[in-house]
Write a structure and sequence with these properties.
single chain, GMP Synthetase, Chain A, domain 3, 7-stranded mixed beta sheet, binds 5'-O-[(S)-ethoxy(hydroxy)phosphoryl]adenosine
Length: about 675
């Protein structure tokens, strides 16, 4: 491959390739280019990332150094000394590069006829108005703004307005209930919360503002609440001098009010996003402005082969990292057209996604395996009635995609010919890490394939011999990359814990590398459960369950689930004389739903007399996990168990649970 071709690839300028590359004409063509780029990136990371950053983003001031590394503290400053603004990169630059009247955001509301489309110019106007308004409410660079909003355009506008003034946004998934929202607002010390009267979900109205009000009594940092009138709810209570309607907030600012972008240091925080930690307290992952944005744009371009006339749709909610990187920042930096959908795939009928693909002629479609599995169950007829020929690339994220779902996706949505880009990554990594490049990487269904150029992934022995390279074990990343988190908010110890075991970034996932160097992700090996692609903390759920006065102890483990990937299985040891019945189960479920949200609702709740414990009193969750997964014959080493007799009763109880028989008796 010529030097010129490498330069072209790094620059991201399209060069049309010879016809043997067929319909792809992709950014990266074939294994050879991939290997050369990977070599180049690892040999000279500064040159590689510097070239990508300068071509993908507009910098007000260029960096002094591509990477400033403090290896001892695992702190990496990308593009140190530079200045840029994320809102400028997502909007302003496109006003002068010929995309002013291009659709930036196409929003499909829950109702079929509810569609809004924003060109880059329109987005600019709205974002400037909101930036102005926030600024007049004394929100300044570095202040935190919580966004507890449904999937509506105002959410994207609010994010970009925060970025414009240098405020740090922290999105809270609108499906979270009281405790989940409270801990995230408290954890981020947000000054303002932007919300809506309600979210619309599967034909139902879910109040958000009313849910927020009692929470705010325990969040003293919040001075103002901005409320988008979305569902036109009557009787929304608005607290004088604290609450303001979105439309009133922006009303004062004329339509042509330009608002200048705050020049940010590349290492200033762009946003904070909480993920489930191992402590039960959500972990506030901080992402930088320069490194994150470079990595978001870089991976969007290479993994999705983004072209200028593409309509691109990432179905993830913006409350998660996927919605941040691949719903908003990546595509908008590239000047693409991104689709945002408020509804769910199965309402009013399980054809909703395919209707949208046909309606907007979507070219790139990125979703989660759990969605594929649920749609697969509803039958192929729902896909057959739509013209899906606009699609060019399919993507998958959030959990391992099982081969059956892969094949269905490939056949029924991809017409048996489209590549499926299975992207492995995490909130902490900012963007895809292990993923194929469409039409270049040979695919193996169920494998996220190989690390992207510049990413050095490996698998380490999971027990004992730290640091040893092995075929199956802990998935680690050995070198820094621009999308990497820059810290954990107010918790340096937690940040360091990612590096403490192997001296490099530990993902918390198990993985295996096959003879071709392909990575197979085996799932979480820490205290997280991945339910339908949503990462939940077992400790967080356990602490809610344990708060119930009838409960003596709670242990939560994942169990395999054909639709959700993993489901939650809760073992409950009750206090003396508490009857085991469905009423208590209902109470426990309600507590979880009220505190964390419906997504954390246990699939099964099993009452037990005693938990399996070590002699020091530690619950052996490993054994409980095996039982929940029906693997009684393979309980592993149980010699450390102080009360082996407990196992027989737990296994019997588990069998009854699966048969749907009620638990008998009470704890005695
Ligand atoms: C899992 C979502 C297998 C994994 C982007 C990871 C995956 C966790 C894949 C991160 C994939 C994500 N194959 N597993 N393609 N993508 N995961 O932080 O366990 O919400 O650690 O980020 O999802 O979840 P998070």
């Amino acid at each position: 491959m010529s030097q010129q071709r490498i330069t072209t690839l790094l620059a991201g300028t399209r060069s049309y390739l010879p016809p043997e590359h067929g319909r792809s004409n992709a950014w990266i063509c074939g294994q050879e280019e991939y290997e050369l780029l990977s070599k180049r990136a690892l040999d000279d990371p500064s040159d590689f990332w510097g070239a990508r950053a300068s071509h993908l983003l507009h910098w007000f001031k260029r960096w002094d150094k591509v990477l400033e590394a403090d290896e001892a503290r695992h702190k990496y400053k990308w593009f140190a000394g530079s200045r840029l603004n994320a809102s400028f990169n997502c909007i302003d630059r496109h006003l002068i590069d010929g995309r002013r009247n291009k659709a930036a955001l196409i929003w499909q509301g829950e109702q079929e006829m509810d569609v809004r489309c924003y060109t880059y110019q329109m987005l600019y106007t709205e974002v400037c108005r909101v930036a102005h308004a926030l600024s007049s409410m004394r929100i300044r660079k570095g202040d935190h703004v919580a966004l507890y909003m449904p999937m509506i355009p105002e959410l994207a506008i609010a994010m970009l307005a925060c970025a414009r003034i240098g405020a740090v946004h922290t999105a809270i998934f609108s499906g979270y209930a009281e405790g989940g929202v409270r801990s995230r607002i408290q954890g981020s010390k947000a000054k303002i919360v932007i919300t809506a009267d309600a979210a619309k979900r599967a034909g139902k109205i879910k109040p958000l503002k009313a849910n927020l009000d009692p929470i705010l009594e325990k969040c003293p940092s919040v001075a103002h609440v901005v409320v988008v009138k979305h569902a036109n709810l009557d009787n929304v209570s608005m607290q004088r001098s604290r609450d303001i309607w979105w439309e009133d907030m922006i009303d004062d600012f004329t339509l042509n009010s330009d608002f200048p972008c705050e020049p940010m240091d590349a290492n200033d925080t762009l946003f904070l996003l909480h993920t489930s930690g191992s402590t039960g307290k959500p972990t506030g992952i901080m992402h930088s402005t320069g490194g994150y944005l470079t990595y978001a744009a870089h991976t969007t371009q290479w993994c999705f082969d983004m072209r200028d006339d593409d309509v691109y749709w990432c179905t993830a909610d913006i409350g998660w990292i996927t919605g941040h990187t691949y719903g908003i920042y990546g595509p908008l930096v590239l000047g693409a057209t991104t689709v945002m959908f408020e509804g769910v795939p199965t309402w009013p009928k399980p054809d909703r996604y395919w209707r949208i693909v046909e309606k907007f002629r979507v070219n790139i479609f990125y979703t989660a395996p759990t969605v594929i599995r649920s749609l697969m169950r509803t039958g192929e007829a729902w896909t057959e009635r739509y013209d899906l020929t606009s699609l060019r690339i399919l993507g998958s994220v959030g959990e391992p995609i099982n081969p059956e779902a892969w094949q269905w996706y490939h056949k029924c949505i991809g017409n048996g010919e489209l590549p499926i880009v299975d992207t492995w990554w995490q909130t902490e990594t900012g963007g895809a890490m292990i993923a194929p490049m469409p039409y270049a990487t040979m695919l193996k269904p169920g494998s996220a394939t190989t690390p992207l150029p510049g990413i050095e992934a490996g698998v380490m022995a999971s027990a004992g011999r730290d640091g040893e390279q092995t075929a199956a074990g802990s998935l680690v990343i050995k070198n820094p990359w621009p999308g990497m988190m820059i810290g954990v908010y107010n918790d340096e110890e937690k940040y360091q814990s990612y590096f403490s075991r192997f001296g490099c970034y530990e993902s918390g996932d198990g993985a295996q590398i096959d003879e071709d160097g392909y990575f197979w992700i085996l799932g979480r090996i820490d205290d997280s459960i991945n339910v339908s692609g949503h990462r939940l903390s077992t400790v967080e759920i356990e602490s809610v369950l344990s708060a119930c006065p009838e409960v003596a102890e709670a242990a939560v483990v994942p169990m395999p689930h054909s639709l959700k990937g993993e489901a939650i299985y809760a073992y409950i040891a009750t206090r003396d004389d508490v009857p085991w019945n469905d009423a208590l189960r209902k109470t426990l479920r309600e507590m979880v739903q009220r505190d964390i949200g419906a997504l954390a609702n246990p699939e099964y709740i099993q009452f037990v007399n005693a938990m399996p414990k070590t002699s020091s009193g530690k619950i052996i969750r490993r054994v409980l996990r095996k039982i929940a997964g029906d693997m009684y014959d393979d309980l592993g080493d149980v010699t450390a168990l102080a009360n082996p007799e407990a196992l027989t009763a737990i296994i019997a109880g588990h069998r009854n649970i699966l048969k749907g028989e009620p638990d008998t008796g009470a704890a005695s």
